[in-house]
Amino acid sequence: MRRLLAAAAAALSAAALLALPGHASAASSPDFDFSACPAPPAGADPGTWRCEAFVSQGLLTIGDREIQLGEIRLTFSEGKIGGKYAQVFGELRHAPARIKDTFGASLQLKYGGYSDFLSNAERRGELDLYAVLRHPLLPKGCTIGTLDAPLHSVVKDDPAVPLEVISQNPKTVKFGVVDSQLALPRTTGCGPLSPVADHLLGLPSESGKNTFKQVTYVQFKAL
Q1: Does residue 24 belong to any structural domain of this protein?
Q2: Peptide bond just before 170 cis, omega within 30 deg
Q3: What is the mean pLDDT of residues 100-114?
Q4: Which residues does 79 contact at the CB level (< 8 Å), separation at least 6?
Q5: Model's pTM, two decimal places?
Q6: Whole domain around residue 200: which residue ranges?
Q7: Could you give the number of structural domains in the chain?
């Protein structure tokens, strides 16, 4: 293992430090993009559907390592069909975020095929994800989780960032969410450098040792 780590470190370039992304304030909420909003499905109850556009700043903690994820954008539509609540996922967009002290590697979140944004007393929502790891020496299929075996994130309200109404027209709110039970497996598809990637990121990391936090602005649009 020591020889493998030493060889990888010698081959990789020096790491570039990630500049921490700024947070939008109540006086300056982000720009929202509704272009990926799904249209109401067939049979949708008229006048009940709306699109929600999320703009978040994310932070992933793996053990004692913090990864500033930067901006995460997400859209989905919700309403009623036959008087019952329904939702349709739109899009998740996330630019690769540099991971400090990993010789220039970056991480990009991808949608894992399942979401449930109907909040209840137990949680704010649920979302399946996987993370693509990028570096010139890593194969394109190097990931944490996969589309077939995604990471399942259940987020709850973060008391440190309570719900705040930013605007009534258009309706815009701000809140914080946190998942403190996210489990992270070993990397998949990373080839000979899999042990290096796992070592640098501290993987696998069991539930209870990681946190996924987001400070989120949401704007609503009638469909």
Answers
A1: no
A2: yes
A3: 95
A4: 40, 44, 45, 48, 49, 50, 85, 86, 87, 223
A5: 0.85
A6: 2-18+33-222
A7: 1
